[in-house]
Design brief:
The chain is an alpha/beta fold. It has helices spanning 21-25, 32-39, 54-69, 93-101, 117-130, 154-157, 206-210, 220-241, 259-268, 280-283, 290-297; strands at 4-13, 17-20, 43-46, 78-82, 107-111, 137-143, 163-172, 177-185, 193-195, 216-218, 251-254, 307-314, 318-325. It folds into 2 domains: 4-175, 3-Layer(aba) Sandwich (Peroxisomal Thiolase, Chain A, domain 1), CATH 3.40.47; 179-325, Thiolase/Chalcone synthase (Peroxisomal Thiolase, Chain A, domain 1, 3-Layer(aba) Sandwich), CATH 3.40.47. The protein has a 5-stranded mixed sheet, sandwiched between helices.
């Protein structure tokens, strides 16, 4: 059967502050009905403490994960952090999380694939386990999206939220774990969803700050279309090549960007909504954190041996689908 990399624990962390649609109505020209109908979002969490960053959200998720799985920080070999809101351009956030949690026998690195970051990081981590190179790897998706959102732009500020989710990966010899993945990228999509300044092309200047080029730019419609097509395509392909159907699969776990995107992907892959994990109404789009936050919210309902497909689409463009067999019943 061979060695697979299995998720053996999941934990999430959300900052306390709840930014509701009602409050957004006082900030920009929008309303609860538009946001609810067009996106499915009712509220999102915001990290208000100016001294706290993405790593602090990651620390909350990782500490809880170590505690609930009875794992000592010294046992961890590698921590991969998926994020587009790194504490700094360098060093990487993974190393800062390790330092703050006391993961000292390890190393870390960040994966930047926007909303697909968790999937890309998960599949990367799985390879380290499958080869036998590492025994315990943490993958954390963490985002302080509020640090790159323009709260005068109604087309983006209603969508994004802050949060983090983390999983522990360990070897599994029983056939449970990550079984297949299709991951894709198309850099031509970069013009539709990106942060214009702050990188080596447009380093920060007084002008870039005034022009608000350090915040998320999104042309929503083409992203919406590409997201539906991209996710539906890889989900159907991964199902076909593993002889899976929406009847035999227990769960579809889609990136939480827009309820209409989720519903379209589910319908194109023939999934009833009862089998689709949805928590967008509570947290909005937390970019690389949506998938682990879904697994965390639904952990009680997951059973050993459940067949699950995770899928995401994001800036880049990046997208993908991962097929796994869940490895444990929650104690
Ligand atoms: O996670 C990474 C990938 N990202 C995504 O998957 C996001 C994909 N895109 C979307 O989810 C949607 O495109 C949005 C939610 C961003 C926008 O929804 P939409 O249905 O595509 O709206 P739109 O941008 O076409 O705008 C329709 C109208 C416009 O008004 P006019 O031009 O028709 O008069 C907008 O100005 O809605 C207006 N509008 C708003 N109205 C009230 C845009 N934002 C708002 C708002 N409140 N917050």
């Amino acid at each position: 059967m061979g060695r697979l990399a299995a998720i053996t624990g999941v934990h999430g962390y959300l900052p306390d502050y709840v930014l509701t649609n009602k409050e957004l109505e006082t900030m920009v020209d929008t309303n609860d009905q538009w946001i609810t109908e067009r996106t499915g979002i009712k509220e999102r969490r915001i990290l208000k403490d100016p001294d706290k960053a993405t790593s602090d959200l990651g620390v909350g998720a990782v500490k809880g994960l170590l505690e609930k799985t009875g794992t000592s920080p010294d046992e961890i070999d590698l921590l991969i952090c998926a994020t587009v809101t790194a504490d700094f351009n360098f060093p990487d956030t993974a190393n800062i999380i390790c330092d703050k949690v006391g993961i000292n026998n390890a190393y870390g690195f960040d994966v930047n694939a926007a909303c697909s970051g968790f999937l890309f990081a998960l599949n990367t981590a799985a390879k380290f386990i499958e080869t036998g190179f590492h025994k315990k790897v943490i993958v954390v998706g963490a985002e302080k999206m509020s640090s790159i959102i323009d709260y005068t732009d109604r087309s983006t500020c209603i969508i994004f939220g802050d949060g983090a989710g983390a999983v522990l990966l360990e070897p599994n010899e029983e056939g449970n774990g990550i079984k297949d993945a299709i991951l894709r990228g198309d850099g031509a999509g970069r013009e539709y969803l990106f942060q214009k300044a702050g990188g080596s092309l447009n380093p920060a200047t007084a002008e870039t700050v005034l022009a608000k080029e350090h915040t998320v730019f999104q042309n929503g419609r083409p992203v919406f279309k590409a997201a539906v097509q991209g996710m539906a395509d890889v989900v159907k392909k991964v199902m076909a090549r593993n002889n899976l159907t929406s009847e035999t699969l227990e769960w579809l776990v889609p990136h939480q960007a827009n309820i209409r995107i989720i519903e379209s992907v589910a319908s194109m892959a023939d999934f009833p909504l009862e089998k689709v994990m949805i928590n967008i109404h509570k947290y909005g789009n937390t970019t690389a954190a949506t998938l682990p936050l879904c697994l965390w919210d639904y952990e009680d309902q997951l059973k050993k041996g459940d067949d699950i497909i995770l899928t995401a689409f994001g800036g880049g463009f990046t997208w993908g689908a991962v097929y796994l067999k869940w490895a444990y019943d929650k104690k």
